[in-house]
Write a structure and sequence with these properties.
Helix content: 55-70%
Structural class: mainly alpha
Number of domains: 2
CATH topology of the largest domain: Multidrug-efflux Transporter Regulator, Chain: A, Domain 2
Distance between the termini: 66 Å
Number of helices: 6
Largest sheet: 3 strands, antiparallel
Shape: elongated
Order of helices and strands: EHHEEHHHH
Radius of gyration: 25 Å
CATH class of the largest domain: Mainly Alpha
Strand content: 5-15%
CATH architecture of the largest domain: Orthogonal Bundle
Length: 146
């Protein structure tokens, strides 16, 4: 199948503007143009675009995505480079995932604290401890009076 930029925008949830930006940034060298100069996408292009979106959504820099696409366009001789790039990116994604997991634990802890029957008492205890810590270190109390 062949798709216009508007159809691809509707299929992917990306705006036409974003698709044009990706093209200008060198991320879509595989997209052909018709005689009028309009971008024409194919099903294969959508597969690569899905990969680009995945890499972008997981925090890969545009310059690294461009490097990956350049490697894809170079063919099988670049498999080692692609593997190295994706391996490094995977490590970053896993580290971010671990950080998110730890942050989620803290959010869940706080939600549990605020849902507890003695939430007011617990929060007052945390505030008292924070005030005592400030006082013990000779610092001003930044907390509003209750």
């Amino acid at each position: 199948m062949r798709y216009s930029i508007q159809e691809v925008a509707a299929k992917t949830g990306l705006s036409s503007y974003t698709l044009r930006y990706y093209d200008k940034a060198g991320l879509l060298p595989f997209v052909a143009r018709n005689t009028a100069g309009y971008r024409i996408f194919t099903d294969g292009d959508l597969v690569l675009l899905h990969t680009i979106m995945c890499l972008k959504n997981t925090g890969m820099a545009i310059s690294d995505i461009r490097r990956y696409i350049d490697d894809v366009m170079a063919g099988p001789t670049s498999i080692a480079d692609r593997k190295a790039l994706l391996t490094a990116h995977r490590a970053k994604v896993l580290a971010k995932q671990q950080q998110l997991t730890e942050n989620l634990r803290e959010v869940d802890y706080k939600l549990g604290l605020y849902a507890a029957p003695d939430a007011v008492t617990q929060v007052q205890g945390e505030l008292a401890a924070a005030r005592a810590d400030k006082a013990a270190n000779g610092l001003a109390d930044p907390y509003p009076a209750s």
